[in-house]
């Protein structure tokens, strides 16, 4: 099984640019309504426009803040590079780079432009 999380966002193209910069990802689809982001050729994240229903209906309740209670976690062996990309992107840091005493690895906790919590972790 491979996880492919999908986030509902108001501006797919802007969110795609942010995640491409922070994750070092590339667009695997592109467009105003839907995106698949790839790292090393594998899908790591899908983005879907909030108000577009397609065959399944809309993915986010209008007026409800996005990201409440959601953490999107990315583990990488190249954490230092991801941290540098995040800082260069001006990403909003929630919890700066630290060692998680429970997991024993390093983590950087960010908020994406839509309020989703994004955790980058690595050795």
Key phrases:
single chain, 123 residues, alpha/beta, 2,3-Dihydroxybiphenyl 1,2-Dioxygenase, domain 1, 2 helices, 8 strands, 18% helix, globular
**Strand segment tally:** 8
Look at the structure and give the CATH class: Alpha Beta
Q: How would you describe the shape? A: globular
Largest sheet: 4 strands, mixed
Strand order of the largest sheet: 1-4-3-2
What name does the CATH topology carry?
A: 2,3-Dihydroxybiphenyl 1,2-Dioxygenase, domain 1
How many domains comprise the coordinates?
1
What percentage of the residues does DSSP assign to strands (E)? 35-45%
Query: Helix proportion of residues, in percent?
Result: 10-25%
Distance between the termini: 24 Å
Structural class based on helices, strands and sheet pairing: alpha/beta
Order of helices and strands: EHEEEEHEEE
Low-confidence stretches: none
Under CATH, the homologous superfamily reads 2,3-Dihydroxybiphenyl 1,2-Dioxygenase, domain 1
* CATH A-level architecture: Roll
Mean pLDDT: 93
The whole-angstrom Rg is 14 Å
Helical stretch count?
2
